[in-house]
TrEMBL record:
<keyword id="KW-0812">Transmembrane</keyword>
<feature type="compositionally biased region" description="Basic and acidic residues">
    <location>
        <begin position="95"/>
        <end position="105"/>
    </location>
</feature>
<keyword id="KW-1133">Transmembrane helix</keyword>
<feature type="transmembrane region" description="Helical">
    <location>
        <begin position="42"/>
        <end position="62"/>
    </location>
</feature>
<protein>
    <recommendedName>
        <fullName>Hydroxymethylpyrimidine ABC transporter, transmembrane component</fullName>
    </recommendedName>
</protein>
<feature type="region of interest" description="Disordered">
    <location>
        <begin position="78"/>
        <end position="105"/>
    </location>
</feature>
<keyword id="KW-0472">Membrane</keyword>
<keyword id="KW-1003">Cell membrane</keyword>
<keyword id="KW-0813">Transport</keyword>
């Protein structure tokens, strides 16, 4: 399952780029078409607004996927180092080492 999320993270970026390229080449609607038409009329601020919207859309999609990954894979190594709800001895290696050392004495 972790590799599925890794693949989806890569795939979501390619899907967004592919969508825009498809709209640039053959679309009659969408942000890709808007960028193409507005670029031809040299309306630079509108082109940058469309690009900013694409960036925001990409970040929202990626962060949404990361949120789903955090909720579905709390046990995975990619989630280590984040604050845990409950501290267990297995998450405290120093404490385990001290307990082992005390047990040997």
């Amino acid at each position: 399952m972790p590799s599925s999320f890794a693949g989806m993270k890569v795939g979501i970026s390619f899907a967004l780029v592919g969508t825009i390229v498809g709209e640039l080449v053959a679309g009659e609607t969408g942000l890709g078409h808007v960028i193409l038409v507005i670029q031809g009329s040299f309306d630079t601020p509108t082109v940058f607004v469309a690009l900013a919207l694409l960036c925001i859309l990409g970040v929202i999609l990626f962060k949404g996927l990361e949120l789903a990954e955090e909720r579905m894979l709390p046990w995975h190594a990619s989630q280590r180092g984040k604050p845990a709800a409950e501290s267990t001895p297995s998450t405290q290696p120093d404490k385990q080492l001290r307990l082992l050392a005390d047990a040997k004495r």
